[in-house]
Each structure stands twice: as structure tokens, then as C-alpha cells.
Amino acid sequence: MKDGDDFMIEYGRSIRWFNDYTAEVEFSKSTNFDFMQIWYVKGEILLDKVLSPKELHILKSNFPVMIHAVYDIDDYDTYTDKLIRILNFLGHNEVIIHPVCESQNVNKDTIYTIADKIHKTNLLLNQNNIKLYIENNSVIDKINYKPEDLKIVFDKNPDVELLLDVAHIDDYVHLEKIIDVKYPTCLHIADKRFNVLHEHLPLGKGELDFNLIFKKYLHEFDGKIIFEVVDTDELILNSKRTIELILNNNNQNHLR
């Protein structure tokens, strides 16, 4: 964490894409979120109750959003031009890519292919002054999950940022090894149970010790936090309050 007034966390939330968009914006405004995360899948913005072009509706709503693009191994070549057009239309200078590999079998060379595709995509994004964040996966994806995979990706792409999904860790050793590869500048926050391969729960409903995580592993974190809790208003707000309290306490202790 940084000293004094330089300490700044931006709080975002993953939109409930199945809800009315205007209601989602009003909820985010009234509860002091800084932005919302919106998914981009197979060339389309994921918002159930918004007519195309969806990016026009987002722009007119006048509330900051961040695009989270889920990319299968062939999507980099297929959907990036459209993604960049949308980002430019919205005036965005940041984007998240969540790399998966569902259309092909994963082998020892797959991570190198993904690292190369990220490299080519990042060159295009750089030409448009757009910063790229790459997300780590959970064990169910079997790619970009192990610290060794992440090292291959970030060695090839040193100027790309890490979005650390805390709910994708196996344990705290796994977490420590990931941040040894690259320290994150953006977080996905949700809870999980360690005996479940993949889940995103409201905070307090799982087994993650966020006091430990932010005191021992992420005590220097200063960036964006995105809550991937698509549940009730109350559970979303409780998750946000939990992290705010931890970070405020940590910051006060740091200044003493």
C-alpha cells in the first residue's frame, strides 16, 4: 500500500447481466461503486435485456464499465478487431482477457500458443493505447492456471498486467507462487471452499481468509478490485464492506 493520500483502490462489480441494465447502474451509483465489469463472449457484449448495439446503450448510461473478454484459443484472431472498435467507441483504455481453451485439447505447447496470441493481441491494443490485463484460471481450465504457465505468458508479455482471481487459487502456497511470477494490479474477489474445484461465493460463505490474504500476500496491493458476486444486493454490499474494512484497517496500521 502507498502512504497517505496516494493510497487509492477502485471498486468495481461484475454486472448481473440477467437484470435490467438501468437498475444495475443505479445500484452501482447509489452504493459507491466506481465501475462495473461487463462480459464480452464470442464477439458479443453479454447483457440480456439490452438491444444491439449494446455499446451505445452502455455509453448513453454514463457510468464507467470495464470489458471482460473471455477468449478461447481461436478467439484472438476472430473477435479482437470488433473488441477494439467497441473499446474505442466507449473511450476505454483498459481491457481484461480471460484466456481459456475449450475448443482444443490442451497439451504442453498450448500455453506457448496462447502466450503468442496474447502478444499479437497486445500489440494491436497498444496501437490503440489500451492496457491489457490477463486473468489466471482455476484448475478446471487446465491452462494459464499453474504458476509455470503464468510465467510463460508474462515472460512473453512483460508489459501486460495480471488480473488475479483470488477464488481461482488452490491454496495459499498457490497464491504465493502466482504473485512471485507477477504482482497483480487488478483483482477478482469472491469466496470459495477449498474442496470445490471452482466457485465464486459471496464473502463469508466460503473458506478464504481475506484478512490473511491482504495482510500477508497482497499487503502492497493498490489498484482495481472487482467483486465477482452476482447475488443479492445485500450479499454484494456485504462483500464490498468486508474488503473495505480490511483495507482501511491495514492502511491505518501502515501509517502508525
TrEMBL record:
Residues 80-233 form the Xylose isomerase-like TIM barrel domain. Pfam families: AP_endonuc_2. Keywords: Isomerase. It comes from the Bacteria. One of its GO terms (molecular function) is isomerase activity. This is Xylose isomerase domain-containing protein TIM barrel. It comes from Haloplasma contractile SSD-17B.
